[in-house]
Amino acid sequence: MDAAAFVDFYDGYRSRCLRAAVASGMSREEAEEAVAEAFSRAWASWSSVGKMQSPAAWVVRVAVNANVSWWRKRRREVLEHSDPEPHAPELGEATDDLDLLRAIAALPPRQRQVVVLRYLLDMDTYATARSMGIAPGTVKATLHHALSALRESLSLAEENVR
Amino acid sequence: MTDLETRLRHAGEELRLDRPVSDVLAHGNKLRRRRRIIGVSAASGALIAAAALAPVVATLEGGQQLSPADSTRRTSDASATAVPSSRPEVPKSAAQRAALTDGEVTRAEYRAGFDRLVACMAARGAGLAAVDTTETVIDYSVMDRDLIAYDDCYAAEFKQLDIEWQVAHSEQSDGARHLRQCLRRLDLPPGRSIAERIEILESAGYSIADCD
Predict the structure, then answer these.
(1) Which of A3, A18, A61 sits opposite B15 (nearest CB)?
(2) Per-residue confidence at B174, pLDDT binned at 50, 70, 90?
(3) Residue A157: per-residue pLDDT
(4) ipTM of the shown complex
């Protein structure tokens, strides 16, 4: 196990992964817990996770999946018939970022995942495609739709402010 | 690059994960100790079953819940910073060796080995907690303070019997059933073996801890 490599990875990606988790619809508090837990799991499996093309994407996937698990448990206890709503990200006074992350969180799952991988984790098209198990062309097309949806969503948000 | 793409790359930059890396490593080491069960299993030929022992992944307040096969983990993972240093493993007792000679472990031999483990620990002023002998595989917990006595007594009286028994009964174990139910709950395919189920679980981004 290469602890030094893991520490470098953690320092380089911890905040990016946190942002990606928030943009995936988690509250800041949930995301902090889930991402820290996911990094611990990454360390626990570092011999395999460290060799992955994008360990950061794995961390985000684990964090988001853990949140889905949590939500499912809660749904059984409290709600019976509704679908999960993406959580409005909490970023204090940063209104622009709040709008942007909220808009990402509201995208359909595949579009959201592409945006998170491409921009928040800074992966290229091919790495994004491999991570999602889809063709590079599909990534580009999905990204095109996602950006259009985000522009529309953000312009609506601006109009509402005015 | 458009303005929007630039904004996306910098979205939420003020968000920082402040968790110290030492906390992450320490928690990861605990998780790895649980996972070590899998490593031990694979190395010994098949005791993957132990990995699916659901109660194993729970932690008791003030102590650790270990699977029977878990004791070897600390001797084989020198890089885990929170893991105690290795100790030479105690040889098998005559009784355990005798029970293993015919290559098959009966329920009576398995149970007798467990009873010898309990007696051995009692002789050293230690004990097991939360013992459950109602399932195919005996389940129990070990408190931190009793771990050294446990490791010695487990190796001497029970370890190989326990491994053989669990390999032979992996699919009927409580842990195996729990893992199947967990996969169903997560909308994942059921898998044909415990090893495959663990692989399905982990490739979907989950871990055994999600099946707590």
Answers:
(1) A18
(2) low
(3) 61
(4) 0.75
CA R_g for chain A: 16
Highest averaged pLDDT of the listed ranges A76-85, A128-137, B82-91, B165-174: A128-137
| pLDDT exceeds 80 at position B176 | no
**Digit-coded pLDDT (tens) for A6-34:** 999 999 999 999 999 888 888 888 889 88
DSSP H or E segment with residue A122: none
Taking CB atoms and an 8 Å limit, are A97 and B202 in contact across chains? no
B62 min Cα distance to partner chain A (Å):
21
DSSP string of B162-192? Answer: HHHHHHHTGGGSHHHHHHHHHHHHTT----S
Buried b / exposed e across B38-67, counting CB within 10 Å, b at 16+?
Answer: bbbbeebebbbbbbbbbbbbeeeeebbbbb
Here the tokens at position A119 are: 């921009």
Q: How far is A15 from chain B (nearest CA, A)?
A: 5
Note the pLDDT of residue A73.
Answer: 40
Q: Of the candidates B5, B15, B81, which has its C-beta nearest A28's C-beta?
A: B15
Could you read off the pLDDT of B158-167 as tens digits, one per residue?
988 987 887 7
Based on the number of CB atoms within 10 Å of its own CB, is B26 exposed (0-12), middle (13-18) or buried (19 or more)? Answer: middle
Q: Which residues of B touch A154 (CB under 8 A)?
A: 4
Interface test with B, best of A16, A26, A41 (most B CBs within 10 A): A41
Tokens 């692989």 locate to B199
- Reduce the DSSP state of residue B85 to 3 states and report it: coil
Helix H or strand E segment including A140: helix A136-161
Helix (H) or strand (E) holding B147: helix B147-153
CA nearest A114 in B: which residue?
B8
Would the CB atoms of B80 and A1 count as touching at under 8 Å? Answer: yes
The single residue listed with the structure tokens 């010695």 is B152
Helical H runs in B44-106? 94-100
With an 8 Å Cβ cutoff, the interface of chain B facing chain A consists of 2, 4-5, 7-9, 11-17, 19, 21, 23-25, 27-29, 31-32, 34-35, 79-81, 185-186, 202, 204-207, 209-210
